[in-house]
Amino acid sequence: MQQFDIAIVGAGFAGLNLAHATAAQGLDVAVVDKRTTCPDIFRAEKIEPDQASVMRDLGTLQFRSPKCEPIGKTLRISGGNVSEVDTVEQYGISYSDTINSLRDNLPSEVTCIHETASEIVPGDVARIVLSNGEEVVARLVVLACGDYNKLIGAIGIPRQQHDDLVSLSFGFDIRRQDGLDFDFNGLNYFLPDMPNGVQYLTVFPIGSRMRVNLFTRMRRSDPLATSLRQDTLATLNKLFPDLPGYLGDVVLDSRVQVMPTTYYRLEEQVLPAVVVVGDAFQSVSPATGSGLSKVLIDVQTLSEDFIPRWRNQRVISADDVAAYYRNRCKVDSDRNSLKSWFYEDYGSQERPPLLTRVRRFVQLSLRFGSP
């Protein structure tokens, strides 16, 4: 039986940032994840300015990969209008490479356990039962295991899911046929009326690669989603007719990756010495660019406002955990993430019509309570 101050289940963005932050406080930390490296998966591919600020505070911004300069000024195209926007401190990243960099640079106070967590047992001291039968004991267990409802559901925390709040994102690399560089740092192309559920296109560098992310409200089964997977560039040119004028003649330079997301949130079920953070607690619409913001707010709130207070307590009670979930900064972050599924007017330069705003407010209030 191995004993730690904190045991984190999940070596993703939330879990590893928390491991760095808590190890820096001198705590004995374990990270439980069966994988030794992060595979090439399609997740967040930009670090926004607010996220960069929090990561700098946590000491983890230096581990982004590739470690390039900020993207800088980008083009914003909407309704026939073109403007230049300073993104201040926005970075293009490889999610997988960044996760592996965060892993590789974990301090010596962190022990990596490459096993599957098969059961969580709350209590005055929480236990993680591993798939090999061994146990990990910790004063605090943090579940940062993403959308792994089986493990969380097994400890009695139900999940609220709404299948009509969906997002389907596409990611792929492009290059110019003539071999020349693109003549812009980045480009964001918005479709104000969101035809066929298409929200916007963003083109940005990740190191030497030029990456495209397309955000939609489609489902995998939609015919347009199939066209985007099978005939990507031709379909894009139909959706964004003047796109070749900005990109030039381009070809695909990678496979097309697709990420479906559905809104879900854990219902409040507080357990002693067990905290759920990040995507394991609530999903975010990828189109907002705020997914990492919510994750980092969870991590920063827990590591800076609560764990230092808890470390001198004999046990971490259910009331202590409830106080974390009620933290105003976290509550606001979770609420804004929910509202983002209803209020997405990325291409509009003006506020939506009053009737549209009232309809959205009523829908949100009836289903989830007052915003």
From TrEMBL:
<dbReference type="Pfam" id="PF01494">
    <property type="entry name" value="FAD_binding_3"/>
</dbReference>
<protein>
    <submittedName>
        <fullName>FAD-dependent monooxygenase</fullName>
    </submittedName>
</protein>
<dbReference type="InterPro" id="IPR002938">
    <property type="entry name" value="FAD-bd"/>
</dbReference>
<dbReference type="GO" id="GO:0071949">
    <property type="term" value="F:FAD binding"/>
</dbReference>
<feature type="domain" description="FAD-binding">
    <location>
        <begin position="5"/>
        <end position="303"/>
    </location>
</feature>
<dbReference type="InterPro" id="IPR036188">
    <property type="entry name" value="FAD/NAD-bd_sf"/>
</dbReference>
<keyword id="KW-0560">Oxidoreductase</keyword>
<dbReference type="GO" id="GO:0004497">
    <property type="term" value="F:monooxygenase activity"/>
</dbReference>
<dbReference type="InterPro" id="IPR051205">
    <property type="entry name" value="UbiH/COQ6_monooxygenase"/>
</dbReference>
<keyword id="KW-0503">Monooxygenase</keyword>
